Every structure is written in structure tokens, then in C-alpha cells.
């Protein structure tokens, strides 16, 4: 099917990940984000920028995706 025929038939979008797993994914991402953020916070001040970024970037991404999945898990329960 083409995109236009999908649009005309009104086929709804289906997520590649089942909505049942959103709370679990939120917990795992937030947990890994907090662990990575804690390792970032204990790095000494006079370390290399690469070492700091290798800890800060995964922490930021994990906390961001964890928050996203947390919001999607909460809206799933509200919207029926």
C-alpha cells in the first residue's frame, strides 16, 4: 500500500513498541540515567573533557528517553 492509500483509508499509526512496555522502559531508562549521572558527579574536576562527556551524554540521553516514556505511559492511562 502507498502512503496516500493509507491516508485515505484512515489506518491508525501503530507504535513499534507495545504500550504495555512504556512503564518498564521508563523505569529502566531513568534508572540507567541516574546511575550515569551519579558517575558523572563523582568525576574529579581536573579530568579530560572526553571522560566527562562520555559520562554526561549517556546520562542526558537516558534521562530524556526515560522522561519521554514516563509521559507516554501516563497519557496511555488517562486517554481511554
UniProtKB/TrEMBL annotation:
Membrane topology of this protein: Multi-pass membrane protein
Localization (cell): Membrane
Pfam family of the protein (one): Ost5
Cited InterPro entries: TMEM258/Ost5 (IPR007915)
Record-annotated membrane-spanning stretches: 20-43, 50-73
Residues annotated as signal peptide: none
GO biological process: protein N-linked glycosylation
Keyword Membrane recorded: yes
Keywords attached to this entry: Membrane, Transmembrane, Transmembrane helix
GO CC terms in record: oligosaccharyltransferase complex
Family to which the UniProt record says this protein belongs: Belongs to the OST5 family.
Function: Subunit of the oligosaccharyl transferase (OST) complex that catalyzes the initial transfer of a defined glycan (Glc(3)Man(9)GlcNAc(2) in eukaryotes) from the lipid carrier dolichol-pyrophosphate to an asparagine residue within an Asn-X-Ser/Thr consensus motif in nascent polypeptide chains, the first step in protein N-glycosylation. N-glycosylation occurs cotranslationally and the complex associates with the Sec61 complex at the channel-forming translocon complex that mediates protein translocation across the endoplasmic reticulum (ER). All subunits are required for a maximal enzyme activity.
Subunit organization: Component of the oligosaccharyltransferase (OST) complex.
Protein name in UniProt: Dolichyl-diphosphooligosaccharide-protein glycosyltransferase subunit OST5
Amino acid at each position: 500500500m502507498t502512503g496516500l492509500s493509507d491516508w485515505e483509508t484512515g489506518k491508525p499509526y501503530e507504535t513499534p513498541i507495545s504500550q504495555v512496555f512504556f512503564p518498564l522502559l521508563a523505569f529502566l531508562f531513568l534508572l540507567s540515567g541516574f546511575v550515569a549521572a551519579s558517575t558523572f558527579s563523582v568525576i574529579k574536576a581536573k579530568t579530560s573533557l572526553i571522560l566527562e562527556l562520555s559520562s554526561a551524554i549517556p546520562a542526558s540521553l537516558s534521562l530524556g528517553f526515560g522522561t519521554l516514556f514516563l509521559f507516554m505511559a501516563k497519557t496511555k492511562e488517562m486517554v481511554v
